[in-house]
Write a structure and sequence with these properties.
The complex is a heterodimer.
Chain A (H helix, E strand, L loop, with lengths): L2 E12 L2 E11 L3 E5 L6 H8 L7 E6 L2 E2 L4 H6 L1 E4 L11 H8 L8 H10 L13 H14 L4 E5 L7 H14 L6 E6 L3 H6 L2 E6 L2 E7 H7 L1 E6 L11 E7 L2 E6 L2 H8 L4 E4 L2 H10 L5
Parallel strand pairs in A: 3-8, 3-9, 6-7, 7-8
Antiparallel strand pairs in A: 1-2, 1-4, 4-5, 9-10, 11-13, 11-14, 12-13
Chain B lengths: L12 H14 L8 E2 L2 H8 L3 H13 L3 E4 L3 E4 L4 H26 L3 H15 L1
Antiparallel strand pairs in B: 1-3, 2-3
Helix pairs in contact in B: 1-3, 2-3
The chains are: A alpha/beta, B mainly alpha.
Amino acid sequence: MNAALEISNLRKSYKGFVLKDISFSIPAGTIMGLIGPNGAGKTTVIKLVMNLIRREAGAVRIFGRDNIAQEPEAKARIGFVYDEPCFPPDVSLGRIASAVAPFYPRWDGKLFARTLEEFDLSSRKKFKTLSHGMKMKFALALALAHDADLILMDEPTSGLDPVFRHELLVRLSTVIQDERKSVLFSTHLTSDLEKIADHVTLIHEGAIVFSAPKDEILETYGLVKAGGRDVSASEIPGLKGCRHSAYGLEALTAELEAARRSIGPRAVYERASLEDIMYFISKGEPHA
Amino acid sequence: MKIIISNSSPDPIYEQIVRQVKSQIISGELVAGDPLPSIRKLALELQISVITTKRAYDELEGEGFIDSVGGKGTFVASQNKEILRERKMKVVEEKLAQAVAEARLLGIKPRELRDMLRLLYEEEN
């Protein structure tokens, strides 16, 4: 499979924050979730892909094209859906669409009209009258109408109700029915990704913890729970983080099977959700 | 084809798909030549990852239950039901042999083992 997006050794520093040599790639035809707690660097990565901020080092390739040297070609294939789309408030959706359409060679007006209808949006509506969720849908409708091959979404589901989120997720999985299209989707609401994502990249404090197929992560990571002082964290293979309570220990391991073999019946074992993984990696006591 | 994905099941999703498709082939609900949805279509319908459905199809294909015909799609493979059943029987036999070996180690008598088996069998219903 060809990569829709390839990021290598991407670096950016702000006061008090460094994005440390991030590398990952998204194969065409797949959905990748970019997860991490607030402030981990998710939005920074997306802004660097969009070349909205200057990178210090590294490379971003969109379908093989450099996002700075070949910016127009690269960007024509991206549909960027961000959490607060910015359009003139008093202009109708239809007029906004006709203003942006000339920038995209593959703009499909009929598809745009169909998508708005599907999303229950009227092209006569003024942008300022849209709710947060409707703005998101409008931005997605624009991205779909210009036939974007890579849809980038920054926190699309935050602030949306569950019905709306579900609808959005179904729409995203519809997008990749076309094997050339891909989606990159940043979120801290991991349950949205637990279902549809093909790959998951977790970043924490500006560095990549893992970037791997979701199934692989959910099969190898797990929770080890033991009461009292039956198990000490240091004997758990693949320990990634743990939490002590008055009654016992809860730990995240990246090697659930090895942990099960070496600790045996002294503990109980559970699958870890992406949320558990994110929690333990960012908040757990690592070497307690 | 019927597939029910349980999120609370301890089995990975791809295994749930493999098991359900297999059992429908073995029971004859799906017959040779029946078309299966594409990897992407199935992922969309079940709202799961395409990698998961691909893995399930790869596994089914590896075991000879389905054939993917380039450019045409995926179909239930033609197979001999007798052989299929025999293959399944063999799996059961192997598992039982394992259980017997364990039982012998623990000094469990054949009659105790039979009782255990009967209990387990009845419990399943």
